Amino acid sequence: MRANPLRVMTVFGTRPDTIKMAPVVHALAARDGVSGIVCVTAQHRKMLDDLLELFSIVPDYDLDIMTEDQTLTDVTTRVLVGMQDALDTARPDVVLVHGDTTTSTAAALAAFYRHVPVGHVEAGLRTSDRWMPFPEEMNRRLTGTIASYHFAPTPLAAEHLTQEHVDSNDVIVTGNTVIDAFLETSARSDLPVPPRWNELDPTRPIIAVTAHRRENHAHMREMCEAMRDVAELPERPQLYWPVHPSPHVAPVAREILAKTPGVVLVEPIDYACMVSAIKRCTFVLTDSGGLQEEAPCLGKPVLVMRDETERPEGLDTGTLELVGHRRERIAASARRLLEDAAAFERMARAVNPYGDGHASERIVSWLLARFRGAAYPQPFAPGSTSRR
To answer: What is the CATH T-level fold of the domain 6-176+355-372, as seen in this structure?
Structure first.
């Protein structure tokens, strides 16, 4: 007698986790013996909808939780309540959540309350401080405690889980699904030109910028002054910055940089445009998590404006450099990449340790092995990643 399809519910609701779960949704849909169920929380409504269209995903359940000026408590409670009916109706065999969002932690807890096992995609990332980044670091730790199955993107992430006494039989190194999404998107023939990109001179260096982390709000003025210093370097680099609308970011950025020659400040852009910007830029200056993994896929060095990263593998292999928020250090590191061709090439040609574009397939294969007795997949081995 043929077994019923394995019912796998994916839950996501922010821009980052939608990008990283989209390839998982596609991999579930492509496999025989699996019934994929998509539940979105809409923690970020507009950004979610844009990505659902880009990745051609139609949710089975939409909790539509977003409210104006929502707090972390609002998000947590509304996801918990909304997940009750979705779980009772869908009756999944397993729920997959991603990474470090409040959606993921609340959805994992809701599944736990219903005795549904949870698989944690991008499991095992850690910093040494539960408050950095906030609330992401605590979210990922809580989700990891709730989860039954752990899909670690790198061997170091798996090692973190082992140190926390997670059974190694419940852990597989998959690579990061963000690489799956990034490589697929960057290869699209219909990738758009980012807005106002025509204002940049392609013969001069272009630095793609993102900055919005809560822990950097107090340092945003100094960071913007550093960017102004970078734009005034003799190499005449240009900065392209989709500015986050936060009142702690946008007003400061526009006050300091709006009239600086070579700086193009634009409204937030969608994922496809961001991939296009990374593809076209010289290097990246960011405090984002995902870009630390994505940009090296295309040989783009990343200067990370944070004091600590949960992605130390990039530091070890040389794709990333931590530059913090101090004005002098940011400017000096950018200048080094612009002046020193050898330093630039070392970062650009370093092996990306974060994935090879097949993480989602490994996740689905592992679930079929655990639940249906199929063969277990081989784990991701850093060094075999696709680049450039």
So the answer is: Rossmann fold (3.40.50)
